[in-house]
Amino acid sequence: REARDAAHDDMSALGYHVARDRKNSHFDLAKDLFESVTMFHRAPSDVKIKVGPVVGVVNFACNALLLAYVLSQLLRVNFYMKEYTPAGILSHYVTEESEHKMAKLAEQQINDGLCSYNTTYDYKWRDSIWDYSTTGCVQEMSGYAAWKGPQSLHLVTFEQRRRVALVKRTGESCDEECKNEHPGWPSTESYGDRSWQAVHARTELFEHMNWGSVSNLTDVPNLRLHKPQVLAGMNLCRCLSFENVFLPGAEELEMALTFGYKSPAGEGTNKATGDEDPETFLMTEEGNVFKTIPKGTVVKVSVKEVMAAFGTCMDCQPSAKFTPNALCPDGICPGDLQPLPVARQTGITFDIQPQFYSHLVVTPRGPGYDEIRAKHDPPYAILVVRKFEDWTSRGNDVELIEALPDRKVETDTYRYGVLMRLQVATGAIAEFNAAVLVNKLVEFTVVATFPSVVVGVIVFTCLGRKSKILRATQRKIVTLPELYRTFTYNTLVANETFAAIDNDQNHFVCIKEFKDFLRRQFKESLKSSCPNESDEWIEWKLDTYAEMMLDYYKVDGGTEEATSDKKTIRGISKQDFIDSVLANEPLLWDDMVAKLKDENCDKGPFDKVWRAFRRRGQNQRGRVHAVGHE
């Protein structure tokens, strides 16, 4: 303390304004927090460990994978925009011009033999009503063939026209009652084990075809007749018959679509040409972009176009599984029969899902999408079409024809066709959002730690004794006695070092003393490092560096320098020198002084409780020992 006071007295005599001592404060934590968020940056210490070539390869591979992942995310994934799923608004109808196309194609198909009871289309599931053989034709308008629903359009290509007569029974069987419905109705006995028979009948459909569509039709078995049934409980006879009918030209029917989308990030429609209004694309689920529609244009697509996009047609064999044709024994089809039914008979379903995308970064990648992204600018309206091959019917359509006390006649038209279903819109309409960007940066930060974790596990746990040694580099054991020791020893070293530099022992190192000391310590090393430089350059660099290390001090008087014209002097005081040396020490001078005054000053409340507990235990043991001794 006397030496410290003497030093202060000397420096005060010289008039140096020295730096203030570091002080402890009750607000150290608050001050530290304030500094950490303003003028200072907290960074973790880093230990660089040489791990060797094998672990190095693993480290390199992990970091390479990390880099590849980050680059792929930056190039392919939206990392700065918030995405909204748009709400789609769609309307649909059959175009007027497609009716003319349907009529024209129907004439061609009639001439090509579709309507001459072509046996190519004969298909039978088994001895049941599901017999699609000997099919005729009726040319209809689009108003009859197109059935519009709220979110669908069913375009009829095939009909099974059934007729059911319920007649009061007069005899044991119903043969006579069914013959009255049709003279050629076979007797019940002739059916044997079968339920159905086919006969030729000059029905209204046959006469219509023979006179209008096709002439000179042969007497084909065009009418299917069920075995006469006795409904004993009601004393009725049931006479069921049906004919099969194609609607030619139906594949030319065309659906028109208008649509729009809405979202918090914007809205658009295919009926306008604004910046947010999309260009439209029709694309199969496999990525075949088969039609492009400019902005402001109604989407029109025919059945033929959609089927061609999937590489199929009305009369092509399906790719889906169907029950083999019962007319082909052992899978061998005689003549021109086919093993499976075609879409003209079974119908087919196409789901159309609108997808809206406002920016490239939110548009998916993959077949079809990549083609659109490369050739066109957003926004996009991509109508993705999915195909489902299966029996697609509208179900029963029953109509009462005649109702008498002893007779009731109904017709039941069972229709198949191409069903176009409009699905709920999806996609991504996006806008910039800072929160999305921050979340992505957090994700990248977390992912960036993975290589270190992987290599850390290898280095510190998987290398045997080497791992045990390397783990020591991660640990620094700190105790209070050790902190006091290092502070004391470093203070002594700093004091001796300053004394070696301060030649005149006035507790202040001027610039000349500091430069002379630097020359003694570093001049030869600098010459070795810069052999091509002159002595003048070496001296200049040392002087420049010395000036960087020192500061200006005000002189108040009491020395020769104070009486001169200079108001400041260049150098460093002893206190500032020692403070700089001890800048990285956790303890302060006040901590050491407090320890000298009270050796228990650094004990906390828990330490005091533990000390009292131990003292009590020692007293108890002492009393037991005394009793035992007695």
List keywords for this structure.
single chain; alpha+beta; four-stranded antiparallel beta sheet; 21 helices; 23 strands; disordered C terminus
In short:
This protein is α+β, with helices and mostly antiparallel strands. 38% of the residues lie in helices and 24% in strands.
Secondary-structure-based class equals alpha+beta
Low-confidence stretches are 6-22, 558-564, 624-630
Helix content: 25-40%
Shape: elongated
Mean of all residue-level pLDDT scores:
87
Q: From the alpha carbons, calculate the radius of gyration and give it in angstroms.
A: 49 Å
Number of helices: 21
Q: Tally of extended strands?
A: 23
Distance between the termini: 53 Å
Largest sheet: 16 strands, mixed
Strand content: 15-25%
Task: Describe what this molecule looks like in 3D.
This protein is α+β, with helices and mostly antiparallel strands and 630 residues long. It is built from 21 helices and 23 strands. The strands form 3 sheets. It has a 16-stranded mixed β-sheet that branches. Strands 2, 10, 11 and 14 form a 4-stranded antiparallel β-sheet that branches. A 3-stranded antiparallel β-sheet has the order 21-23-22. Helix 3 (53-76) packs antiparallel against helix 13 (450-461), helix 15 crosses helix 19 and helix 16 crosses helix 17.
